[in-house]
Structure formats: structure tokens, C-alpha cells
Queue: 2 jobs
Job 1
Amino acid sequence: MSSPNHILSASQFSQDDLSDIFERADYMQAQEASRDLRRQKVGTYAGLQLISLFYEPSTRTRLSFESAGAKLGMGIISTENAREFSSASKGETLEDTIKVISGYGDVIVMRHNEDGAAAVAATVSEVPIINAGDGGNEHPTQAVLDTYTILKEVGRLDNLKIAFGGDLRFGRTVRSLVRIMSSVYKGNNFNFIAPPELQITDDIKKQLKESNASFMQTQDRYEGIEGADIIYWTRLQKERLTNPVDKMAVDKALMAGDYNLDKSVIPYLKLLAKVLHPLPRVGEITTDIDSLPQACYFPQAHIGVPIRQALIERVLG
Ligand code: NCD
């Protein structure tokens, strides 16, 4: 048996891969309009099972993957709280769990609290593993849907000024998206806006330097977003901080609202800028922003379904 096609990191995609995925996502969306085309699609995947194995909370990623699988006509087997309700709570290793459940279906969509868990799962799985977020490391399918959103909203993926704000240290969606936007597409430059405890990490800076992408870091949201074409905002992930001193500093920043996109940022937003957020937001984009033409985060979340249909199709071959 040939080895399965996994999706583990955003770094694995070339520009051609992404163009193919976007084309298939366009097709998936067009298919929605025709009942006959929807029936054809379901025929191809009937009898296949998608297993969703989530060790961490999720709303969009899990449900959009399950929706994508169902739209393709697959059966869905799901555990939404595997840390508590799978044999992990009895001390079973991830490797053993994967060896067993890879015999129950055709693709495993997995979210885990530990960095690198999806790669570990892939070493023992008989079926494709799709990384739906591993700790503070990567979230490649979110990065693909973010890239597609940028293409749809702005019309290009190169020579953009992109401001990332919030938690850039543990924000796995940021880490994966920066990889794609700096190494696959050229001429993009990056502003990173975060408290010092949550700034972009050295591995990502190294990648930016290798790609010759220019970037700056700041704590000033106004300076960071001014003139940006894309503003990608995220929540400060306090739950991933272990150091109490860092926790206090982040609490202070949260109380002060220094990393919020609120009314005060409106004069600094370019008219044609687009504001993205992987969601969930917990106050860091206030509802004042929702009705602006720049706000894109809800359409961005919806694009998750056709993109994930295209990604499931891709790993199943
Ligand atoms: C994020 C995640 O889980 O990494 N959400 C998502 O998948 N859309 C962001 C977060 O938890 O803040």
C-alpha cells in the first residue's frame, strides 16, 4: 500500500498546489447551486468515513470539516473531547489510538494540544491525517482558507502589506499563514503587532529572512495597521501561557485593550483594507468594526467548508 497523503504543515504547499485547491473550492461552491451536481459528488465518496478526533475545543474547524465530509457524501465519526472521552484519559498513547482508529475510516481530521502531534500520528496511520491544529505550532487548513479569502477579497496574493496582531507566539493560524504568504507568494511585507511576551517567534523570523520578506515588530496597533492591505487579528491565548510573569503582562494588556481593534482604529484603516480573524474573538475586535466594508471575518469562516471539501478530496486522491 502506498503511504497516505497527509496535511501536516502549511510549508508543504507549493503555489501550484494552492491554485489547484482554490480551483476545486470554486468548483465545490458552484456545485452547491445544482442538485444534479451535488448528487454526482456524493456518489464518489459514498461509503467512505471521515473521523474527526479533537483533543481541544473547536467550533469552526470541526463543524466545517464535518460539513465538508457530509457534503461529499461521507459518513462522519466524531469525538469532540478526546482528551476526556477517548482512551487518552486512561493513558493510551496517541500512536496506539491512531493505529486502532485508522482501521475505522478513510481520513482522520485531528486537533491536539501538543505541538507536533499530527506528525506523530502520521508516522503510524494507515490513512491520511489532516492537522486541524497542533498546540501552538500549525493550523495548515486554516491558512489555506485564509489565503483563499485574501485572494477572493483582494484579487492577489503578492506585494501586499499584511499586519498581524494579537497572539503571534501561540497563534498557530498566524504561524501557518505567515509561512504561506512569505515563502509561496513574493513581495509581501509584514507588520507584527503584539505584547513582547506574545511576539512572533525566532523560527518564523528565520523563515521570513530566508524568504527575503521585510517585516517589523511593534506594540502600537495604530502604527502597525496604518496602510495595511490585510489586517489579520487574533485573540491573546492566555490558556497556553505557563509563565506567571508573562500571564500578568498579558492580563495587563488585555485590561488596557491595547490589542483591540475598536472604533479608535477606524481612521487608520485603508478604505480597501480587509480585516480577517480566524475566530473565536473574545472582545479583541469590537462589534463597531463588524459593519465596516473592511470586515471579512464571517465570510472567511464560511469559506472553510468548500476549502475543506477540496482538501479532503485532495488527500483521498
Ligand atoms: C483558532 C485555533 O483554534 O487555532 N481558531 C480556528 O481554528 N479558527 C484560533 C483560536 O483558538 O484563537
Job 2
Amino acid sequence: LRQMKIINNIFEMQEFSRQYQCQNPHKKIGLVPTMGYLHEGHLSLMRTIQSSCDCLVVSIFVNPIQFNNRDDLEKYPRDIEHDIALLSGLDVDILFMPGEIDVYPKGVPEIFMDYPKLTNKLCGITRPGHFSGMLVIVHNLFQWVKPDYAIFGLKDYQQFILIKKMIADLAMPVKILSGEIIRDPDGLALSSRNVRLAPEERINALVISSTLFKIKREFKSGKNQAGYLKKILHESLHKFKLDYASVYDTDTLVEFGDNDIIKSGVAAVAVFIGEIRLIDNLIL
Ligand code: AMP
């Protein structure tokens, strides 16, 4: 295993990448951006990107400007020691952990990055500003790390679509890879926020993935009318406070109408289990 170096300073990160590219012009830098409290979902992104790159950078930064809810930010789980222990079991070259003051020396940036047609739906409706904050930090991390590759999980499907668009529109020289959703054996999609679920809530949360799996089975058996699939979603999730649950076009994220017959799509859900908002999705 390679020795992992921790870099907190942004200038030092930039210097590292500059020197690495100078000394190894044909080698590739890969970046896995995270907010820490790492789990197998994050680790699987690292393993996937490893086959495309020679130098692996993992970033941990709980980005305050992508939290539209103060309570969610304050309660976001953190355990850097545990994260470092997990990372030392992988071939990570750099753990980049910039400080908040250094990332936002002038406070909250005034720029607003938006794709109105993609953010006026799904998580964008109830999390105003979330995607702008996310795109700003991803953009800035790319400026500092200058990765050849970066990887994002399909767990955050809307985020993945938005990042790919930003990379294309701003001609950013980085290739974007995706990672499959990693789940616990009982189906619950891994999330740093799962630790906040009480034991009983965690059991309740299983209805999310089991409903998505059911929809996929129905779809595969030929029941591909959007209205039918949406009805299953709403019926099995009716006990919970629902943010959204429907079937959407995989590229435009436009919701299918009840009478649409779908050939492909993504079933996506955001639901409150107690106070914790969980998201999950499945590509049909
Ligand atoms: P986060 O730390 O929650 O910001 O997530 C960092 C990256 O890990 C994002 O690209 C997420 O999409 C990805 N990720 C989070 N949970 C999972 C999961 N269960 N499976 C795959 N990727 C995930």
C-alpha cells in the first residue's frame, strides 16, 4: 500500500498536482470528492476509479453552502479518525481536507450556478441552492486538484447529471465516471445520514429500496405504464412524509405522465423517515 499524505492547505494541493503532472506527464490523477463519514459506497468509488488513474486523491469537505438546512449541516456526521483508518486500507495517495475559511475566504460566494430545467424538479424543489452550492465546490475542487478523472455515485442521480452538464458546458478537462449504488445486504442504500436513524426508523426505511426493487420487477415483466409504476410507489410509501417519488427520463429528468409507456427511466424517491430525509433511485 502507498503511504497516504494529508493535505489541508489549498496552495499545497495545487503545488502537488502541478508537480505530479510535470514529473509524470502521462500519468493520471483521479479525484473522489466526499463529505466524509466514509462508508462502503465511498470506498467502492475509490476502487472503481483506481483502474483509470495512477494517483488517487480523496477529498473530505462538508460543504456548508450546499446545505439548505442549518440543522442538517450541524447534525451531519463527522469522524475524521475513522475516515483516515478506512482510507489507509486503500491505495490513496492524497487525502485533501481543506478548511472552511480557506475554501470560502470571503464567505458565501455570490455566484449561483443553475440548470433551471434540471433543478426545478426532484431534490431541487425542496432544497433551494443545494445544487448551486454543490456545483461551486465541485468546480473549485477540480481547479485545485486538476484531476484527469473524477467519480460520483449514482445514489445522487440528479447531482451526477448536473455535474456531467457542467463539465461539458464549461469544457472542463476532466472525465466523469459513475459508481453504482452500494447497499446494505437488506437493501438500504448506504448514506452517511443513515447513522442518524433510530433502529426502528432504519427498519421502516427498508420500504424505500424494496419498493424500488418491486417497480423494477414489474417493469421487467412488461408492466411499463408510468401511471401503474407511480401508483405502486405512492401506495407503498403513503405512511411517510414524501418529498417526491416518481419515474423520470434518465437524461432530462422530466417526470413521465401517467399514460406514458416507458422504455427506460429512473425511479427516484426522497422520503422523510422521522426527521431524516433519505434519497434512493433505481434505473429501469
Ligand atoms: P457524500 O459524501 O454523501 O457527499 O458522497 C460522496 C460521493 O459518494 C458522491 O458521489 C455520492 O454519490 C457517493 N455515494 C454516497 N453514497 C453512495 C452509495 N450508497 N453508493 C454509491 N455512491 C455513493
